[in-house]
Amino acid sequence: MSSQLVAGVDSSTQSCKVTIRDADTGAVVREGRATHPDGTSVDPRHWWDALGSAIADAGGLDGVGAIAVAGQQHGMVALDADGRVVRDALLWNDVRSADAAAQMVEELGQEAWVARTGLVPVASFTGTKLRWLRDAEPENAARVAAVALPHDWLSWRLRGYGPADESPLGPDLDALATDGSDASGTAYWDPVRREYDAELFELALGRGLRVAGATDGARDDDVVVPRVVAPDEAMGSLGVDVPLPGGATAPSGLVVGAGLGDNAGAALGLGLGPGDVAVSLGTSGTVFGVTDAEVRDPSGTVAGFADGSGSRLPIVTTLNAARVLEVIGGLLGVDHDALGELALQAPAGADGLVLVPYFVGERTPNRPDATASLVGMTPGTTDRAHLARAAVEGMLCALADGLAAVEGTGVVVERLLLIGGAARNEAVRVVAAQVFGRDVLVPEPGEYVAAGAAKQAAWVLTGTLPAWDTATTVAAADPHPEVLEQYRAAAG
């Protein structure tokens, strides 16, 4: 008997990746990808087109029994009563709602937000984007009949729902579903009680909410939010063939898993458990771990999200990670590999040259209007090698502060993993072992968000969460605490 196949999707800021795997072993059978447009606000139709193209690039879904979608968190997908997108989705990295976030914190108080949601609102979270929509675009706000997140909306479309002229099952908003990891990044869902907070939603959009499928006590102007399904529960199974952009088809009978947020997907893909913390170097940077304990950080630095297995995912996010290498590499006219080679020509600490890399503002610390700065320029440090070294160190020092914040909540770090495209760079691995001052495990290159989604699909299909092996290499600890000290002095 042939092994069952499952598919995992990573719909990230930059692209859509699809991995089709053997459900038992995790072996990759085939893969596909498609790009997303740049920008901090995007028409979700581009994600739908890219999903279809990536599935087609992966050879379609023939033989696949289950699929799950992991997606970039926080993006505001507002739908009208006909299932049409009201306006371009504001993404996690869109900071226009920074003032709205500050107002919401002032209105309720920081401690109350942490107690009720595990986080303090910043511009990234969905709730602040809804407040911005209410205040800046009241006509659009009045049209909103449902609010979803990127992975919710894609999963809904994949199951055959959407505008009547574009989907076989039409605009059934009560079919919207999500999971706890993504819901916990909205700022109106409590990961402890695992329930929506209707008062906080109304504080954001000025209207009440109704959970999809529920009717008791509903008001005519309530806005539908997706029902939250368990990590091992299916959103549903396709009752019809669903045509996809790009020519592929989602076949009748395909099981669609709960899906999850991108960081929860990476944690599941890596097989993280209590004691494990990952530093992820994408365009943005994240530090996250898995714990069974409740996490509440009164400062709001660490968000107490849910993970993709029923536990907690304390997380710190920065807006600037691999983009730092892209900006400085572009300035120097080199790619990431050549930038790394230059960086290793300069000593640890770059002889006092420090790059504070807030190129697009920053989320942690919460400085949405900040800009980058270069400190310590002298005739001896103003050269290509020192600037390259300062770029790598600045990126990692910002995340070292995030790691310290995660540890400050009581999370014990027994294994530190470094993932993301930038982790493949030798200079990044060397400097990480110096800045973090401990052994750094570097898993073999892979699409871990998509792998986590595929694991979840296997879980739903077989009833058991698989444990797929991941090979790692080790960058041995080489502590240089002075690097982080001079960075902190420059960042202020």
What's the helix count? 15
Please state roughly what percent of the residues sit in beta strands, choosing from under 5%, 5-15%, 15-25%, 25-35%, 35-45% or over 45%.
Answer: 15-25%
How far apart lie the N and C ends?
62 Å
Q: Structural class given helices, strands, pairing?
A: alpha/beta
Low-confidence stretches: none
Provide a quick synopsis of the model.
With 492 residues, the chain is an alpha/beta fold. 33% of the residues lie in helices and 23% in strands. It is globular, with a radius of gyration of 22 Å.
Structure write-up:
The chain is α/β, with parallel strands linked by helices and 492 residues long. It is built from 15 helices and 28 strands. Strands 1, 2, 3, 5, 15, 18 and 19 form a 7-stranded mixed β-sheet that branches. Helix 2 crosses helix 4.
Write the layout of secondary structure elements.
Layout: E1 5-11, E2 15-22, E3 28-35, E4 41-42, H1 45-57, E5 64-71, E6 77-79, E7 89-90, H2 98-108, H3 110-117, H4 126-136, H5 138-143, E8 146-148, H6 150-158, E9 177-179, H7 180-183, E10 189-190, E11 195-196, H8 198-205, E12 209-211, E13 223-225, E14 227-229, E15 234-237, E16 242-243, E17 249-250, E18 255-257, E19 260-261, H9 262-270, E20 276-281, E21 285-289, E22 303-306, E23 312-318, H10 322-332, H11 336-343, E24 354-356, E25 373-375, H12 384-408, E26 415-419, H13 426-436, E27 440-443, H14 448-462, E28 472-475, H15 481-491
